[in-house]
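Work Package 3 (structural annotation) set out to generate three-dimensional models for the target panel prioritized at the project kickoff. During this period the team completed the workflow that converts sequence records into discrete structure tokens, so that structures can be stored uniformly alongside our sequence database. As a representative example, we reproduce one entry of 107 residues exactly as it appears in the project archive.
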Amino acid sequence: PVGYDYGAALGLPQQAPPQAAPVDAGAGQVQMRLAIPELTVGLLVGKGGNIIKELMHLSGANIKVSQKGDVVPGTTNRIVTITGNPVASNYAHMLVLQKVPTATSIQ
């Protein structure tokens, strides 16, 4: 099931997900950047953008995925930028990690 924590169900110790370093974006806004493998973009965006729109609605943060070809230098990883107030941004970060667990923080 989506969002099911198999580790907790098996009694495994909980590990905190890697945190993106928030950057002050002004006016109480923070910005986080994550890298996701090119092949996982569809998991985050969804058909017609339905998944990313839902994540933005749930979190209250803005989530943008870089265009094809706009990647982290030296990789094929696309850049996900999350912008919003600290609470919304952290929640959006968690939601993105649920969809793409291989996402990594970038500066």
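The chain is about 30% helix and 25% strand.
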